[in-house]
């Protein structure tokens, strides 16, 4: 994987926070910490995008004749299938 070198500016408080995370053994260096933050943000943005899509599909589908229990059961089944 190709890498790109970036220069960023942090406040003293932010730098101290990163150094604390490294000192406690969570990360080995500043770059690892920043990459972890970017990865987690990418995951969260993906989840948010999926949620927005599901909301849009729900709105676009209109009113349903199904019961809330039926809708809930289908949602649980979809969640189980997605996690399998």
The proportion of strand residues reads under 5%
pLDDT average, as an integer?
94
Radius of gyration, in Å, reads 21 Å
Q: Please count the helical segments.
A: 3
Pick out the low-confidence regions: none
Number of strands: 0
Proportion of helical residues: over 70%
Q: What features would you describe in this structure?
A:
With about 80 residues, the protein is mostly helical. It has 3 helices and no strands. It is elongated, with a radius of gyration of 21 Å.
Task: Provide a brief overview of the structure.
Helices cover 71% and strands 0% of the residues.
Main attributes of the structure:
84 residues, mainly alpha, 3 helices, 0% strand, elongated
Explain the layout of strands and helices.
Blueprint (H helix, E strand, L loop, with lengths): L11 H12 L6 H32 L6 H16 L1
